[in-house]
Amino acid sequence: MAGKKTKIAIFDIDGTIFRKNLAFELINELVWLKVFDKKVRNELVNHYTSWLDHKGVYEDYRKAIVGLYADNIRGCKQEDVLKASQIVVPFFKDRTYIFANQLIEKLKKSNYNIIAISGSPQEIVEEYNKYLKFDAVFGAVYEIDKNGIYTGEALFEPPKDKGQVARQYIAENNLTLAGSYGVGDTESDAKVLEMVENPIAFNPNYNLKKIAAEKNWRIVVEKKDVIYEINS
Predict the structure, then answer these.
(1) Residue 121: pLDDT above 60?
(2) Which residues contact 224 (CB under 8 A, 6 or more apart)?
């Protein structure tokens, strides 16, 4: 029988484990289900296209998706978001990065307590965790009234301080930072990476790469089926 888990590994999801963006796919599915108006898909595609065309950085794109979801979730039923999540996740569950898969497998065998902190909505993050099988996952939480309808108010937005989320979890579960791992791809992950013993900037955007180079963190890039280490 495995001993008590005392070590911690902290992952981002979108762009770190999942090759796409859970919130993007959730919004798209909510349009197909006619929960969101079809004009929302046009806005979604416009944000994505702008990023592909280098009109803004990845963090701008990520924040735009979060804003689009928050602007349209008011008045919707939580049961519809759960339904959409249950459609999206099984379809996309295997679109993951090789590096992340290998590291997660290694950490699980080494009896790490593994968590994910994401900016995507908690409903789809929890659905995704049915396949990840992490010890805990934290996504954005939006207020629901007594009838199961979203009010539009965000109660918890992890990207604002992922470090605080991680520290609270570590304290509540009596974990140690000795041997700890952190993996992320944007500057919103920096506060996690600076607190762990083994920080990994994976496919980092410009801002995180700059921070990682200054702090001499490990930088890993996966392109197609090849994994590269970048020497700071």
Answers:
(1) yes
(2) none
Helical H runs in 77-161? Answer: 78-92, 98-109, 122-132
Q: What does the block give as tokens for 192?
A: 């996690």
Distance of CA 46 to the CA centre of its chain: 21
Torsion sign over Cα 127, 130, 131, 132:
positive
Domain span holding position 215:
7-230
Q: Are 83 and 45 in contact (CB under 8 A)?
A: no
pTM, two decimal places: 0.94
Tell me what the pLDDT averaged over the chain comes to.
94
Q: Of 79, 168, 174, 161, nearest to 119 (Cα)?
A: 161
The answer to the question of residue 2 being in a domain is no
The verdict on residue 1 lying in a domain is no
What percent of the chain is predicted at pLDDT more than 90?
88
- Residue 154 lies inside a defined structural domain of this protein: yes
Cβ atoms of residues 208 and 31 within 8 Å: no
Q: What is the CATH number of the domain that holds 202?
A: 3.40.50.1000
DSSP-derived secondary structure for 143-193: EE-TTSBEEEEEEE-GGG-HHHHHHHHHHHTT-EEEEEEEEESSGGGHHHH
| 214 lies in some domain | yes
Q: How many domains does the chain have?
A: 1
pLDDT digits over 77-101, tens only?
999 999 999 999 999 999 999 999 9
Structure tokens at 78: 């939580």
Site of tokens 């607190």:
195
